[in-house]
TrEMBL record:
GO terms for biological process: positive regulation of TOR signaling. This is Roadblock/LAMTOR2 domain-containing protein. Residues 17-107 form the Roadblock/LAMTOR2 domain. Pfam families: Robl_LC7. GO terms for molecular function: guanyl-nucleotide exchange factor activity; molecular adaptor activity. InterPro entries: LAMTOR2-like, Roadblock/LAMTOR2_dom.
Length: 133
């Protein structure tokens, strides 16, 4: 029964977050996809292409945040705020949403990173302030 309750809570959370992610993706053609996941990598809501394995993305983001946090701590850089991965075909920005979730934003290689950073932070704050997590 508890598992069914958890699933219902996740579905409800996803229904509240998905419209916010759609708005983020529509802000710029540079943003290709976005996803909100728990800090342990469980997908809560996504607006992505069909060929993206959301569970795998969640697990990778959780690992990256863990490693990034340890690196920032070890090098005395303070609390981790975000992780940026830049590849030939674009970027993935991972931003914390409070202490319970993260936002991953996938952008094109031609994207203006300043705009992507700014919009991702605004959306992360909006989700945190909405208290849907």
């Amino acid at each position: 029964m508890m598992t069914e309750q958890k699933q219902n809570v996740q579905e409800d959370t996803g229904q509240k977050i998905r419209p916010i992610l759609k708005r983020l993706n529509n802000i710029s053609q540079d943003i290709e996809a976005s996803s909100v996941m728990s800090r342990d990598g469980i997908n809560l809501a996504s607006v992505m292409r069909n060929n993206v394995d959301q569970d795998r993305l969640g697990a990778m983001c959780a690992s990256l945040l863990s490693l990034g946090g340890k690196t920032a701590s070890e090098l005395e850089r303070g609390n981790l705020k975000q992780v940026l991965i830049e590849g030939d075909n674009g970027c993935v920005l991972i931003v914390q949403i409070g202490d319970r979730a993260v936002l991953a934003v996938v952008s094109k290689p031609t994207s203006r990173l300043g705009m992507v950073f700014n919009e991702a932070r605004k959306i992360a704050r909006e989700i945190e302030e909405a208290k849907v997590l």
